[in-house]
Amino acid sequence: MHGGQHLGFILDPASCSYDPTKDPAVLCLSEGGSNATSTCVTRTQAMAINKAWYGETSDGSFPDPAVDNGARPTLGPKQRWYGLSRGTEVNLSGTTNDLLSGLIALSLQNSPLGGPSFTNATGNGASGYKQLSYAQLDNAFDRGLALNPSVFAGLNSDDPDLSKFKARGGKLIHYHGNADELIMAWGSSNYYERVIATMGGLALVQSFYRYFEIPGNGHGSYNGTANPDANPPVPALDQMYKALTNWVERDVPPDGLVLNSLTAVPVAKSLAIRSYPRKISYVSGDVNMASSFTCR
Question: pLDDT tens digit string along 20-63?
C-alpha cells in the first residue's frame, strides 16, 4: 500500500516480510485459516512457498521473514543461493523444473536424478531428484561448483573483474526484473556488489556499468508477480538499446529511465527507475504515475 492505494506489485521486495504461514486469508479452513476456496494452501504448502522465496539452504531451514526475508546482496549464513523475490509467482513445474533437475543430475553425474526430459549418453532422467535429502541437495551445489572449471568448462559467467572491458571503453547496462520467475534477481545485485568491491568502488563502476532493478518484471513475461492484474511498467522494446547508444555515442549516462506498462488494462502505469543501489519510494499522488515517486 502506498498512500492508501494498491500499486499491484511490490516496489521493494527487500522490505517485504510477508509470511503465508501466518496469513489466515490464504490458509485453508482445516489449517485454522479463513480461506474456503480451492486455492487455499496448507501450512506445509505455505512453508514450501517461504522456502522458494528464501532460497536453498544447507539444511532446508529458513528464518522468519520478519527477521530475514532472504533479499540482500550477500548470502545468509545457511543460504546457498537466493530464492524468488517475495510476491513472485512460484511455479516449479515444466521448464523450470526440467532446468533445475537437469543441473542436479549433471552436478552429481547421475543421470536418473534428472527429470523425464533429461537425456544423456549415460542414461535418462527418472525424476530421482525428488528423493534427495537437503544434505544431498547441499552436496549437489558443492559438486557443481567443483566441476565448473573443468567438466562444465567455466560455465559460470560471474567473474567480477571487468577491467579489460572497461579499458576498451566498454559500457554496460544491466537490468533484472525483481519478479523474475526463473533467474533469482538477488543474484544480479550480488554480482554487482562484487564488481564494486573488485573494481574500486561504486563511482568508478558506474562510470561504465550501471545496474537497474525493475519492480514486478518477470522472466520474459512482463508480469512475473502472483497478481495477474499487476501490470507493472517495463522497458519498451528498444528503450535500453537507445539508452546504451546515448551513453556510448553521446556520453549521456543512463538514469531516471521512465518505464510504462504495456497495456492500459486494468490501468496504465509509469515508473522512473534509478540505477542501483538507489531505491524508488512513494511521495504522494496517483500511485500509477512516475511523478508520485522519488529515489533515495
Answer: 999 999 999 999 999 999 999 999 999 999 999 999 999 999 99
Which residues lie below 8 Å from residue 159, measured CB to CB, with a gap of 6+? none
Sequence length of the chain is: 296
CA–CA gap between residue 60 and residue 71 (Å, rounded): 17
Would you say the C-alpha torsion 146, 152, 157, 162 has a positive or negative sign?
Answer: positive
Residues contacting residue 45 through CB under 8 Å, at least 6 positions apart? none
Prior bond of 13 cis (ω within 30°)? no
Give pairs for 140-143: CB < 8 Å, separation 24+: 140/103, 140/104, 140/107, 140/108, 141/56, 141/80, 141/81, 141/107, 143/107, 143/108, 143/109
- Taking the C-alpha atoms of residue 178 and residue 216, their distance in angstroms, rounded to an integer, is 6
Closest CA to 147 of 189, 110, 97, 191: 110
Euclidean distance between CA atoms 209 and 203, whole angstroms: 10
CA-angle at 254, arms to 275 and 155, nearest 5°: 65
Name residues whose C-beta falls within 8 Å of residue 252's C-beta, 6 or more positions apart in sequence: 246
* Residue 197: all three cell numbers together: 568491491
DSSP string, 244-258: HHHHHHH-----SEE
**Tens digit of pLDDT for each residue in 175-212?**
999 999 989 999 999 999 999 999 999 999 999 999 99
